[in-house]
């Protein structure tokens, strides 16, 4: 069991670092990964490595050749209105200003585009999909509900006492959090749905394991495969594909299956939490437990 745990931690560390250095969506996974004892130490290790490398790309001149300097960076870091007004590449017509050339844009970009919706044929996010159908802009806050739901579930998973069930639920929640990118983030390009492919591989592997959601796996795999099929663009490409109906048809086989997949995962998690979670006041771990337990 010890060797299996070590191998699992190596895979988790590699996965977290790859995710950190590509898409910051993994930040939403940190609460549950830090609260679950079995993943806490590896998560902290990945955070330390990521923080060290990130600092290098901020403070070493050769790695951040067009830095705006620490004073300017600290001035704008928490000025969200300024970030949204001046650091959104789409609003700025793809012209880079000095703030966008600094490496800090890697993180500030999340804030810069948090409420901006790019109404483009190749954008397949749920917010753009709904706005196109409605013919009006729907509040961006509504689409943050999947994130809030995932964070709420993150604080419930650690209360599942059975370790096997807890880790199975943790994996399911990580899948759900990865799906929130398509549901809550405004600018999702079609190629980014390729990130569902690793999820399909994981689900196929789980079919040979006795997980508590085994009966739902075929449904999850089927929905995931639909997401990866070619879009229905070929149906409307000969006509006016910029109309609301055409854009909806093009996006529907991506967006709707993701919504269904997310709901299916959440239903299974809620069922597991209702049956197996024993809620009590959590014990705050000591530093020794954080790093060595």
How would you sum up this structure, described in words?
The chain has 15 helices and no strands. It is an all-alpha fold and 293 residues long. It is globular. The mean pLDDT is 88. The protein has helices at residues 2-20, 30-35, 37-59, 70-77, 80-86, 98-101, 105-112, 126-134, 145-154, 163-184, 196-206, 217-228, 233-236, 244-276, 287-292. Helix 5 (80-86) crosses helix 7 (105-112). The longest helix is centred in the last third of the chain and has 33 residues, at 244-276. It is 62% helix and 0% strand. It starts with a helix and ends with a helix.
Query: How would you describe the oligomerization state of the chains in this entry?
Result: single chain
Shape: globular
Content-based structural category: mainly alpha
Number of strands: 0
Spatial extent as radius of gyration = 21 Å
Give the SSE string: HHHHHHHHHHHHHHH
Enumerate the spans where pLDDT stays under 50 for 5 or more consecutive residues: none
- Number of helical regions: 15
Secondary structure: helix percent: 55-70%
Instruction: Determine the mean pLDDT.
Output: 88
Main sheet properties: none
Distance between the termini: 16 Å
Count of the domains:
2
What amount of the residues lies in strands?
under 5%
What would the keywords be for this entry?
globular; 2 domains; 0% strand; 15 helices; 62% helix; mainly alpha; 293 residues
């Amino acid at each position: 069991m010890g060797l299996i745990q070590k191998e699992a931690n190596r895979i988790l560390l590699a996965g977290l670092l790859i995710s950190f250095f590509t898409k910051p969506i993994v930040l939403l996974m940190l609460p549950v990964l830090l609260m679950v004892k079995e993943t806490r130490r590896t998560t902290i290790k990945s955070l330390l490595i990521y923080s060290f490398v990130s600092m290098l790309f901020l403070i070493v001149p050769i790695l951040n050749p067009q830095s705006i300097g620490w004073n300017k960076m600290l001035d704008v870091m928490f000025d969200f209105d300024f970030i949204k007004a001046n650091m959104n590449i789409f609003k700025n017509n793809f012209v880079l200003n000095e703030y966008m050339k600094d490496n800090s844009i890697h993180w500030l970009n999340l804030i810069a585009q948090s409420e901006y919706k790019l109404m483009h044929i190749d954008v397949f996010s749920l917010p753009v999909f709904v706005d196109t159908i409605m013919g009006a802009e729907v509040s961006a806050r509504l689409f943050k509900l999947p994130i809030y739901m995932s964070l709420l579930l993150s604080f419930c998973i650690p209360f599942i006492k059975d370790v096997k069930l807890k880790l199975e639920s943790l994996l399911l929640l990580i899948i759900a959090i990865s799906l929130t990118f398509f549901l809550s983030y405004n600018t999702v390009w079609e190629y980014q749905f390729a990130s569902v492919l690793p999820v399909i591989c994981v689900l196929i592997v789980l079919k040979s394991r006795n997980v508590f959601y085994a009966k739902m796996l075929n449904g999850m795999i089927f929905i995931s495969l639909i997401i990866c099929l070619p879009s229905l663009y070929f149906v409307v490409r000969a006509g006016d594909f910029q109309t609301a109906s055409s854009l909806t048809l093009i996006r529907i086989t991506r967006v709707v299956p993701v919504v269904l997949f997310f709901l299916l995962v959440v239903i299974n998690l809620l069922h597991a939490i209702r049956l197996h979670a024993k809620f009590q006041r959590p014990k705050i771990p000591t530093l020794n437990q954080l790093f060595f337990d």
